[in-house]
Amino acid sequence: MSDALINGLAGAGGGIIAQLITYPLQTVNTRQQTERDLKKEKRKLGTIEQMCQVVKQEGWERLYGGLTPSIVGTTASQGLYYYFYQIFRNKAEIKALERQKKGIGDGSVGMLSSLIVAALSGCVNVLLTNPIWVVVTRMQIQEVYDEAGFWGFWKGVFPTLIMVSNPAMQFMLYETMLKKLKKERSLSNPDNNGVTALEIFLLGALAKLGATVVTYPLNVVKARLQAKQVATGDRRHQYKGTIDAILKMIRYEGFYGFYKGMSTKIVQSVLAAAVLFMIKEELVKGARLLLVKDGIHTVKSKLP
Prior knowledge:
The chain crosses the membrane at residues 109-133, 153-174, 195-218. With 304 residues, the protein is mainly α. It has helices spanning 3-34, 47-58, 67-101, 111-140, 157-162, 165-188, 197-226, 242-253, 262-302. It has one domain (3-289): Mitochondrial carrier fold, CATH 1.50.40. 73% of the residues lie in helices and 0% in strands.
């Protein structure tokens, strides 16, 4: 089994568990992002209040609306992302070693290379899985896709491609902090440069926090475009594309509109990322250990 496939399967497994834990927060956040009430004087419900309101008015099951396609989407997107990330990362590591032989660098992948690797992986992932996430967004806000035809499945793909900057920044920060931690640990104890599951959890949380704060406005625009367009005469709620959505949000809602539900998103995405990183790394370690043991057993069984 290739290292890329191991990472892909581990990423899918970690993503599923993280999704199950944080899905109610994701549902509430999607509603907050796509809420189009322009009356600023109306008191906005907090995350917990909104969750309680959904349960009271629609039942517990609505907090998990669209869970099935979301799990499918998470499995596909995380699996593909980590699969291609490992492939591109391996190539970057080979080039880094080649540069080291020429007297350039220390043989490790730098921040810029990490950013490029994560961005390329994210672009491949977005183009392959965007239709699934359009369906998930519609199901979370109780709307059915019926007005845009086949190409409607790629609504919001432009801001989503730009949103590749989020996981790209996340992985750049994560790899940089992980590299620094391992280096410091190896200096104090050459025989131990490993990291614990808790440290992976914390590094994943910090990396996602930084990336989410920077890219959140684009996430809101993406959600608006993927949600069903309001079929009324009020053109303030009708978006023809990414630029149109941005301009109308600025004009009618102000810059506040780009940060709707940000506190909920930070809690949900940071927790999900931390859980995903921790579980994914543990699964990768377990898979590699099993393969090593299986290889040793196979060699011994062939001995006379």
